[in-house]
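testing teh design pipeline on a random one, pls ignore if ur not involved
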């Protein structure tokens, strides 16, 4: 192995040794450890944009009167198997299983990292008897989800969702309220051209008829199905519609759930549509929108950047799940919610050239006196007390060097702590112009704020 001027080799234990140009061996370097595939580091330069998305999610949760509910990052495998369906991809193929310590009761993998938040939230709803609270219950959550999927652009094994759920509201008004909320989120995030796809997949009464129609139709065209679809046909025929490799003609002529809705589901969906129209919220009917998780009933929706639908890059999705609470052992309670993938929203923003979020102006506190550590900390503390963004330079380098690095890290101001402190003053330097003047400590924050 050779790298530039030095060469090296890998020892039996995987440690790299390096030989420099003079033939000397430098100390062994342990092999580098990288992030797991499909998981990303949020780097400092992305931090501001990410914090902004989180802030929008928190602010909208408040404005739409949702209360915060957090559940554990891991839950019993059984919860997801029952809630999302044994044959959903999230359970069958993508579960991150977690086992207990060796020798413990849970040594065998009994838990899984949550692939999505809805099942956990409903579990908490049932476990804490929340049905007795004056309803409907409106909750939000923001946090990481885990799916052992094939990593690619916009598809990660760890990703973050902003999730909202409403339990105990049969709709249809709340269905529209959620679609409007998601649109507002994308608008505030600055992502342009987001379209809502909409469908209704019926309920326990009419779904069996639709299922039967799909079985008959795809069953008579089995030779044109992919292997995956043939399997889906046996376990859950709705999910054949979800197969992106489905023959286009076959898909176009497939039975549509809207043609099989019972009276109540048809009424519900028709009101959802007229409310959306009245609110001026555009949507596209999408007959293939059956969603990948089994708990859905009636209204389903997904959000895409127009023209990017084919790449399975939904920016968010959700729908109604009127049977889930009961399935998880609670009293029959209707539910609806959505999850928005913040990673994909960030990516969409970057692709659309949204200017990067800017941080507040930075102030660096410097001093020519290497001993003036306490003074630098005190001055920084005064400015922080006033809400400003401050970083003291703790080095003993020359003042010029400290000012140079302050400019390099993008600081707007340098506060120079020197002899003036004896009369409760410092020197304030504008790093873009080089202009500096003495300012009283008591009025320093105000002086910076006013410029
Ligand atoms: P989901 O459609 O599976 O729904 O995920 C919601 C959103 O999470 C997706 O639209 C996407 O933005 C993001 N997402 C999903 N998988 C990944 C991934 N591997 N990498 C990056 N982003 C991803 C749910 O999870 C439901 N719990 C939503 C819901 C809430 N339905 C009712 N209430």
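output:
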């Amino acid at each position: 192995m050779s790298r530039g001027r030095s060469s090296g080799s890998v020892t039996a234990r995987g440690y790299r040794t390096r030989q420099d140009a003079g033939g000397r061996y430098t100390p062994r370097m342990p092999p580098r450890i990288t992030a797991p595939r499909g998981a990303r580091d949020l780097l400092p330069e992305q931090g501001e944009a990410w914090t902004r998305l989180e802030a929008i999610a928190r602010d909208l949760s408040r404005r739409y009167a949702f209360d915060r509910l957090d559940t554990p990052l891991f839950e019993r495998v059984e919860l997801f198997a029952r809630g999302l369906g044994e044959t959903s991809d999230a359970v069958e193929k993508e579960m991150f299983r977690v086992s207990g310590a060796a020798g413990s009761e849970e040594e065998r993998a009994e838990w899984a990292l949550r692939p999505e938040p809805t099942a956990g939230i409903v579990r908490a709803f049932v476990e804490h008897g929340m049905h007795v609270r004056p309803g409907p219950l409106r909750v939000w959550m923001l946090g990481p989800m885990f799916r052992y999927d094939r990593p690619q652009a916009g598809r990660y094994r760890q990703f973050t969702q902003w999730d909202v759920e409403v339990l105990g509201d049969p709709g249809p008004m709340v269905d529209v309220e959620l679609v409007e909320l998601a649109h507002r989120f994308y608008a505030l995030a600055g992502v342009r051209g987001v379209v809502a796809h909409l469908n209704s997949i019926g309920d326990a009464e009419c779904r069996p008829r639709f299922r039967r129609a799909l079985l008959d139709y795809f069953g008579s065209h089995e030779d044109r199905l992919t292997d995956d679809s043939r399997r889906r046909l046996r376990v859950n025929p709705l999910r054949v519609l979800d197969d992106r490799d489905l023959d286009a003609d076959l898909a176009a002529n497939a039975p549509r759930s809207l043609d099989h809705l019972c009276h109540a589901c048809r009424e519900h969906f028709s009101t959802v549509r007229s409310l959306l129209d009245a609110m001026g919220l555009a949507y596209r009917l999408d007959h293939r929108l059956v969603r990948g998780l089994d708990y859905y009933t009636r209204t389903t929706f997904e959000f895409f950047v127009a023209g990017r639908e084919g790449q399975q890059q939904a920016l968010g999705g959700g729908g109604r799940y009127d049977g889930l609470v009961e399935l998880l052992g609670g009293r029959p309670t209707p539910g609806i919610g959505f999850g928005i993938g913040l990673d994909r929203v960030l990516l969409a923003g970057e692709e659309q050239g949204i200017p990067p979020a800017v941080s507040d102006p930075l102030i660096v506190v410097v001093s020519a006196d290497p001993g003036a550590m306490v003074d630098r900390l005190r001055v920084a503390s005064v400015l922080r007390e006033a809400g400003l963004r401050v970083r003291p330079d703790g080095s003993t380098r020359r003042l010029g060097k400290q000012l140079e690095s302050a400019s390099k890290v993008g600081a707007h101001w340098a506060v120079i702590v020197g002899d003036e402190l004896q009369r409760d003053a410092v020197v304030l330097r504008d790093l873009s112009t080089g202009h500096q003047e003495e300012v009283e400590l008591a009025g320093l924050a105000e002086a910076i704020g006013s410029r």
